[in-house]
Amino acid sequence: MITQSIEYLRNSEDWLKTVLIGGVLSLLSALVIPTFLVVGYLLRVLRATMRGDEEPPVFDDWGDLAIDGLKGFVIGFVYFLIPGIVVAVAVFLGVAGAIAGGGSDAAGIFGSLVALVGALVGFVLTIFAAYITPAALSNYAETDRLGAAFSYSDLRPVLFSGKYATAWLYAFAVIVVSGIVSGLLGATGVGAILSAFITFYALVAAYYIVGTAWGDIHHVEMRGDDSPDEQAAV
C-alpha cells in the first residue's frame, strides 16, 4: 500500500503541476487561505480514493476548494484543541505553583511535576487526535456533513478496526519519513523550499492510504461528481 500511495500522484499526466501548486501553497501556508486550499485538496484525495478512483484530483474550483478546506481545518482544529488546552493549563499551573511558592525547591519540584504530567497527558491526547482526525475527515468527505466528523457512533467501528489502524500506521510512517527528509534538507535554504513540496507529496500519499482503507471499510460507491456543493443539492 505504501508503494501504491507514493505512486498515486503520478497516475495523472499533470502530477508535476499538482505537486508544484501544492508545494507553493504549503510555502504560503502562513497566509492561512493557502492552508485551506491544501486541506481542501486532501479532502478531494479522500473522496477519490475511498471511491476507488485512481485518477488524482486537480486544483480547480478554487472557491469550493477553499470552503471545503476551511471545514476540514475546523475539524482538525477542534480535535487538536483539547490537547493544546491541557498542555497550556499544565504549564500555567506549574509556573503559578512555582511563583506561589516563592521560588523554593519544593515549589519548583511541584511545578515541574505538574508540567510533566500535563505534557504526558497532552502527548497522549495529541496522538489520539492524530489518530481520529483522518477518520473524522473521511466521514465528512463521504457524507459532506460537518456533523459527521464528530459522530462517535459512526467513527467508533472504524477507529477500532484493524484495517484502519494498519492504514493509519502506514500513513504515519510516510509522514514521519518525509519529515526526516525535510528536516535534513531544511539545513539549507534551497532544501527548506524543497521540503514544502516533499511534505505535500507525502500528505497526499498518506491520505491516499487512509481514503483507500475507508472505502474498503465502508464500501463507498463511485460517484460521477464529488463536488460537495452539488452532492448536497441532490
From TrEMBL:
It holds the Pfam family DUF4013. Coiled coil: none annotated. The chain crosses the membrane at residues 20-43, 77-100, 106-132, 167-187, 193-214. The keyword Zinc does not apply. Keywords: Membrane, Transmembrane, Transmembrane helix. It comes from the Archaea. This is DUF4013 domain-containing protein. It comes from Halogranum gelatinilyticum.
